[in-house]
Amino acid sequence: MSAFNGGPCTDSHKPKEECGVFGIFDNDGLDVAQLTYYGLFSLQHRGQESCGIAVSQNRDIKHYKNMGLVNEVFTSDVLSQLKGEMAIGHVRYSTTGESRRENAQPLVTKYVKGALAIAHNGNLTNGDELREQFEQRGLIFQTTIDSEAIAYVIAGERLGSKSVEEAVVRSIPRIHGAYSLLVMSPRKLIAARDVYGLRPLSIGKIGNSWVFASETCALDAVGAEFVRDVEPGEVVVCDRERGLLSFKDNCRAVQPRMCIFEYIYIARPDSRIAGMSVYEARKNAGRLLARYCPADADIVVGVPDSGLDAAIGYSEESGITYEHGMIRNRYMGRTFIQPSQEMRERSVRLKLNPLRHIVEGKRVVMIDDSMVRGTTCRRIVGMMRDAGAKEVHMRFASPPFLYPCYFGTDVPSQELLVAWRRSMDDVKSIIGADSLGYLPVETLGEMIPDAKTGWCDACFTGKYPMPVPYDKIRNERGY
Amino acid sequence: MSAFNGGPCTDSHKPKEECGVFGIFDNDGLDVAQLTYYGLFSLQHRGQESCGIAVSQNRDIKHYKNMGLVNEVFTSDVLSQLKGEMAIGHVRYSTTGESRRENAQPLVTKYVKGALAIAHNGNLTNGDELREQFEQRGLIFQTTIDSEAIAYVIAGERLGSKSVEEAVVRSIPRIHGAYSLLVMSPRKLIAARDVYGLRPLSIGKIGNSWVFASETCALDAVGAEFVRDVEPGEVVVCDRERGLLSFKDNCRAVQPRMCIFEYIYIARPDSRIAGMSVYEARKNAGRLLARYCPADADIVVGVPDSGLDAAIGYSEESGITYEHGMIRNRYMGRTFIQPSQEMRERSVRLKLNPLRHIVEGKRVVMIDDSMVRGTTCRRIVGMMRDAGAKEVHMRFASPPFLYPCYFGTDVPSQELLVAWRRSMDDVKSIIGADSLGYLPVETLGEMIPDAKTGWCDACFTGKYPMPVPYDKIRNERGY
Amino acid sequence: MSAFNGGPCTDSHKPKEECGVFGIFDNDGLDVAQLTYYGLFSLQHRGQESCGIAVSQNRDIKHYKNMGLVNEVFTSDVLSQLKGEMAIGHVRYSTTGESRRENAQPLVTKYVKGALAIAHNGNLTNGDELREQFEQRGLIFQTTIDSEAIAYVIAGERLGSKSVEEAVVRSIPRIHGAYSLLVMSPRKLIAARDVYGLRPLSIGKIGNSWVFASETCALDAVGAEFVRDVEPGEVVVCDRERGLLSFKDNCRAVQPRMCIFEYIYIARPDSRIAGMSVYEARKNAGRLLARYCPADADIVVGVPDSGLDAAIGYSEESGITYEHGMIRNRYMGRTFIQPSQEMRERSVRLKLNPLRHIVEGKRVVMIDDSMVRGTTCRRIVGMMRDAGAKEVHMRFASPPFLYPCYFGTDVPSQELLVAWRRSMDDVKSIIGADSLGYLPVETLGEMIPDAKTGWCDACFTGKYPMPVPYDKIRNERGY
Amino acid sequence: MSAFNGGPCTDSHKPKEECGVFGIFDNDGLDVAQLTYYGLFSLQHRGQESCGIAVSQNRDIKHYKNMGLVNEVFTSDVLSQLKGEMAIGHVRYSTTGESRRENAQPLVTKYVKGALAIAHNGNLTNGDELREQFEQRGLIFQTTIDSEAIAYVIAGERLGSKSVEEAVVRSIPRIHGAYSLLVMSPRKLIAARDVYGLRPLSIGKIGNSWVFASETCALDAVGAEFVRDVEPGEVVVCDRERGLLSFKDNCRAVQPRMCIFEYIYIARPDSRIAGMSVYEARKNAGRLLARYCPADADIVVGVPDSGLDAAIGYSEESGITYEHGMIRNRYMGRTFIQPSQEMRERSVRLKLNPLRHIVEGKRVVMIDDSMVRGTTCRRIVGMMRDAGAKEVHMRFASPPFLYPCYFGTDVPSQELLVAWRRSMDDVKSIIGADSLGYLPVETLGEMIPDAKTGWCDACFTGKYPMPVPYDKIRNERGY
Questions:
Q1: Which of A361, B14, D232, D335 has a CA 20 to 30 Å removed from the CA of D78?
Q2: How far is A116 from chain B (nearest CA, A)?
Q3: What ipTM was reported for this prediction?
């Protein structure tokens, strides 16, 4: 089944959920909807497709969600109608046709104990299995998001539990995969993370009020003080009487595995994840890259914006001059009309434009965070040459993508990955660079020295922290 | 729980479902979405709040629904993306705050056998009970419409049934109240009515394709030939192989009871319900009214548009001249800014305006279909007097409203009904008329002589065809 | 030059201006923008394409205008920003591509004495000539509406005048054609009509405040008392000190000639034009039609809504029973998706639907206000036959259209008129009726006995009250 | 007079016109509207309030303009209707209430020779004087933009000229101030600049087609080759027969004076203005600042995005490490809900967020392009201290603003400028910095060594290239 909103609708595969969540339990008379608005606004980089806010007041949940950016969806009028004692919010990104309003979060439902709202970031590995089980019991599904299966699990567990937090604690072993979860029941706000802690979730405080956010930059945005991260497998519950309580029944069974790509690309540079500055991680990647993949060049240029931080690190380590050699147009909105093939061939430079003046006659090290299909990279190399660069040395502040991600990072299917089953030389000639370098996978630990967690680098190594569908493919094909 | 779209949101009570449904099973290569668009457009009078269309193709259901009129919600672009072999559509009216996009129909879900779409017209009497049962089993609800409970019942019955039609047949005894139902499964289109047949549902044919509609005017709209009505309690199923099949397991257990208010107000005059012309029924009401509540007057004026047909009947029977003595502004849209109290007192005439020229110095019989709270009526009587009418005799082409409706007609709570516990004289003086007359409840049978059904007039008599919550109130208060 | 808003843009010919104007000069602390909103809303039938309101406060004019209906364009927010001591408003209808926001009225400009806002209804016959003269003097035009030329004339005359009202009085002889004009200067509100009084304009009063409106139904709408009509050629000015002043320098030079089509079709039935009730005029037309074009028939049916009033008159005069034999769908909005040719052939009945029950086996007199191209009429006759009518007798409550209108009524070019150069028999067979009758042109005076004005019936007779471009065509072709 | 679109409307003062223009004369069958779309998109930084495109085909001009960003205003549908042989486009920025659709450009008019479209960047110094003269001649104005006065001048001069280009050449001496102008007549595209060349305008070429743009980055965007700049006072005309012709009648009368603020802030870093790279100019400013205003510090941080380029220059020259120490949220749209005063006090960090990790315990040199009122700067210094900076040294890559600009740069009134009549020490303590440094005005020439033009630095020095209203203020107040 599928719905659509203005655009064409295809159902080719399940959407990846790169998302952001924000929640607040108020004890100070704060405007929870407005704070959630600002929180989501600062998490906008994690999802630009749809967003939503649910507030709870007097055991009644109101919500509003729609396709669009936070500042498009929420007007003063809408926000002023969302009064409450607590709120959760969500920004969502989806890579394919499942761009539908029905799939926006939070998911607001009614269950045996009243209202129940859920927002989550991450992907379940047993989502389809759970759905099938529920359907076999006569249940129905109205969306294609994992939140709906999670809601069923929690609603089911609630029957035999003394409290909603107990139901969430009991649900964790049944929900496999990556998830950072916010749940709002009539009187409580609950936060939880999967046992591997694959997606981030931090706790903050404004006065006596509790705040939860995917990234610490959202705590900064609302003027909240960072308290600590929710632990992998932990369930944290806020209510009026008891304040903040922690349930660690599911903690420490396994080694934490934070998604390494949060550091490389997803998170904002001003966030700290598991204690490690994202900006510093990227600069470290640049430094390591300079050490392991040096280049004889005149200037270092980062691809804006994703390669800029690593470029500074590369420049520092190598001593090669850092330049803003490429400009990115900041006004590329969702409705931008793409140029025709004919125009693209006439070397239009709409999104990115190199500075001829800087580049001309120079040997350039171009730094980007990662390479997926290679098409953008080839275009960038071409632009630099058109602008007069004598040599173009591509360096990526991450290892080559080789394996699918089942935990919420959007990696296209393996055959589309430029590095899959290709030699470095082949890739180099595909993108047209004079040389090519990747961050060695062995250095990822060095990249995040302050991180108080292990990490998942399965997209680079194929070493998944838990059983995934790829295991079957691998067996079949003998990889 | 509740959501809202632009407007304020209150949850005071369950919305009444005055709605319209349309469905088509195509065997001729017709554009099912476009035909559903036209069908819904001709049922727009049954619901102006939201609408939706779901189409099924290759076992996959696509749908689009939103707040607004049919011609606002559906553009050529949207329709062109709804290709399919069958379709169902819905227009919805809701009287209170539960104006929310989530509550728009059809409800599209996934269940054990694939996609399942449901559109219905009517109100369940055991909706809350069903919800509670399901919640006790760990299920969740995402809307406040009965369709969701119906979907759970059907999905549950499907487990022990050989086919979806068998599941629907089995579901009928579990779903109490008033409903005309269209269900779309991956390969079948199913129509069903409650055992009393409280809401209409007709079958039509275009070539070899089957059409279902709440009213026959929708069959006319799409150029379909009327075949017959779905019988009370009947389940009709269309599929590719067998054409149209009927299941009458639930038929004839009880006496059919068509909602009499469909004839009085809800349906379009060019529809036939249970074989009886709605226009003729209204003219009959006017004739009966002239006979039982005559008036010594110069002209007969109908309140546009709902009183016009009865006014013709009254004029014919009484011999008093029929005049278009009051004009209705046709452009009153949903976003119309209501005048302030101060303006209303200065006798602005925005929606209705009497023709002074016609009315001045005349004794006028004003005909309307029915009176609810009496406020509109009092304003109309005042307008007529301001316009110079010498006498104003109010006549209503229905008995006085006295009891709540549990079957989908929007009647406000009893204390708000002007006729509740008031004498005719009191009501007359409240509305300021020179005389007052209602259609005697005993004449309702005479009003619809051609109708091949009994009827429900519980809103006038309190005689409900099945147990309803009012029974409890009545016992408590000793009415 | 041309602009467009979303739709395709053609510039084929100058748009006809069937419009409505409303103005108010407040002396009572009224909300002038809101009253103008209600006034325009009641004039919506005169123009559904665009609308606008300009208010004046402290010599500063603010305005808002856009494409769309009054209740779509104006929200509470917009209205609340339009505070002022006086206001003028406009609704506009345009038949062709010149549907552009720039052409919406009022036209708000700055001239030598400050702000100047103009709204008018009607068409100039020397508009092109004026434009050419001004262009030859180095002036520029930003719209294609006559208001801009009128503004230039007034602004030019202001230079040699003592007051803006003197400038308007002097302008009248230079502006030829049909116009009812509202002009707002920094401190005055001025109303004027062309010397023939081709378009209506009435004066009303709310307390001490003055109101002007194209039709009296707008006075009723805002609770204003009718005072009198602005006279042909008269200039009326309101200011704070002197109240209402009249300038009749241009009056009574010629015989007044009200557009007869205002009575036949354009105006609302509850309006009085030049003292004559529009509803009564239409009933008279029906009575005259019955007398001059009788029919041997069972029922009289009006084409809704334009033929209903005349149908009552026909029924009264002939004694043939009046029936609501055809239903019109009230929800046909601007964005309605038109059915394909193939669907139309399958006799879909979307906009109009006959009542088979009433029509079947009957000899029907169908009454409509007028016939232009004959296509709609042919479709109606076909529908009636499909619904079982034994005979269909078409009667039109106006003479046949034969000549172009240069004064603001939208008549297509002569070759498209079904009656142009065709015999009655030819027309009858084109539309497929059993008989055909028009209101004789000689009876138009009988139709409007109470009208205190002569009338223009040039669209039926070719007898124009002033020189028009058609004179040249006629000479060339020898008509 | 004023209009508004959704937002409140104030008329406090004439808007400053920081704008961008783009034009194309096609000789190769290019899609001129689409190229203009991309050109405007790359000039979006020069104006985000409204935009428009006018195309000319067969002597007929079509146009579309509206409030909003280029990618919001123009859809594929709209663009596909704008077919033509030439086009001009405009992006507009306005600082105050005169945000009205009527003021969007291009201005499309009709004059004695047919259609005339005008787009311009800059501000006239005799705009009010011209308006008054025209009004005294009986003319009217419909907008408050200078384009309307320019159109009147050109239309008037056209009467005595042999060609439109001659009219433009003759108009230049009558139009005082700053303007880069594109004019489209029925068959010609004309570009012109004021005699001082205060605003940039470049010529480019795609195949045989001619392109004009405010900045060279727009030439890059559409794949055009840079040909040369339009000279100060020059009129350049394109037509089908003669190609590109230049008229230099008004050239070289005065010394060219390019607006220095184009280099400092307005233009995009990848543009070249008068031969000088904007990026290099900014880096030079940073280098000069390091030389003249050194600081004893640990890191250099640029305020994103306007201070980043100068920060690199400062770092290079000083040897102090360059860091991305502050993050800017990229999603700040036009409809962003501003935080309440109370929230702002709780140090929310919505738009900018310092990286505590980088800043903590450090002595920081913060670089921004310029300081106007000081409020933003004070907030930035506060944020840096909150984030743990030990010292904050503010450095501005321009001299202090002291005088109004009459040529299109938006400088608030003198009393609001933080540097006006205040000592360096006072300013320093207002913003709370540990030290404060500005680029010395004497070094501006060193900043733009490659620029083939003189420059206007009146906003810093009060030395205006031509008589301006400030001369009167200065005399009165004795500055």
A1: D335
A2: 8
A3: 0.91
Q: Which residues of C touch B38 (CB under 8 A)?
A: 339, 343, 348, 350
How many Å lie between the alpha carbon of C275 and the closest alpha carbon of chain D?
Answer: 38
* pLDDT less than 50: residues of chain A: 1-15, 96-97
Instruction: Read off the pLDDT band of D17 (50, 70, 90).
Output: low
CATH number of the domain at D18-256, please? 3.60.20.10
CATH of domain A277-334+350-453: 3.40.50.2020
DSSP states of C163-223 as a string?
SHHHHHHHHGGGS-B--EEEEE-SS-EEEEE-TT--S--EEEEETTEEEEESSHHHHHHTT
**In this structure, which CATH number among 3.40.50.2300, 1.10.10.10, 3.40.50.2020, 3.90.1150.10 belongs to the domain D277-477?**
3.40.50.2020
Question: Cβ–Cβ of D136/C77 closer than 8 Å?
Answer: no
Domain ranges of chain A: 18-256, 277-334+350-453
> Which of D38, D277, D339 comes nearest A357 by C-beta?
D277
Average pLDDT, chain C: 92
Measure the CA–CA gap between B122 and B134, rounded to whole angstroms: 21
Out of 3.30.565.10, 3.40.50.2020, 3.30.200.20, 3.60.20.10, which CATH number does the structure's domain C277-449 have?
3.40.50.2020
Residue from A1, A57, A164 to probe the interface with B (highest B Cβ count within 10 Å): A1
* CB contacts, 8 Å: A341 with chain D: none
- In this complex, the residue of D44, D45, D346 whose CB is nearest that of residue A223 is D346
Q: Determine which of A139, A143, A150, A159 to mutate to test the interface with B (most B C-beta atoms within 10 Å).
A: A139
* The pair of three-digit structure tokens given for residue B374, joined into one six-digit string: 């009496």
Task: Please tell me the total number of residues recorded for chain D in this structure.
Answer: 479
Residues A228/A205, Cβ–Cβ less than 8 Å: no
Res. D389: pLDDT tops 90? yes
Residue B15: per-residue pLDDT:
42
Asked if A158's CB is within 8 angstroms of B136's CB, the reply is no
Q: Which residues of B participate in catalysis according to the annotation?
A: 19
For B46-67, how does the pLDDT look when each residue is reduced to its tens digit (9 = 90+)? Answer: 999 999 999 999 889 999 999 9
The pLDDT value given to residue B478 = 78
Question: Could you tell me if B38 and C348 are in contact, meaning their C-beta atoms sit under 8 angstroms apart?
Answer: yes
Inter-chain residue contact C159 with D139, CB threshold 8 Å:
no
CB contact under 8 A, A138 and B112: yes
Q: Considering the domain B277-330+349-449 in this protein, what is its CATH number? A: 3.40.50.2020
Give the pLDDT of residue C119. Answer: 97
Phi and psi at residue B45, in whole multiples of 5°? -60, -20
Say whether D141 and C107 touch across the interface (CB within 8 A): no
Tell me how many residue pairs between chain A and chain D have CB atoms under 8 A apart: 157
pLDDT at A100: 72
Structure tokens at B464: 């409900």
CA torsion, ordered B268, B270, B275, B279, to nearest 10 deg: 80
- The pLDDT value given to residue B391: 98
Of D384, D401, D404, D402, give the one whose Cα is nearest residue D393: D384
DSSP A208-224: TEEEEESSHHHHHHTTP
How much of chain D is in helix, strand and coil states, percent to nearest 5? 30, 25, 45
DSSP SS3 for C162: coil
d(CA C467, CA C449): 28
Q: How far is C395 from chain B (nearest CA, A)?
A: 20
Residue of D nearest to A78 (CA): D337
Tens of pLDDT, residue by residue over C76-122, are 989 999 999 999 999 998 654 355 777 889 999 999 999 999 999 99
Of B1 and B93, the one with more pLDDT = B93
Dump pLDDT digits (tens) for B419-439: 999 999 999 999 999 999 999
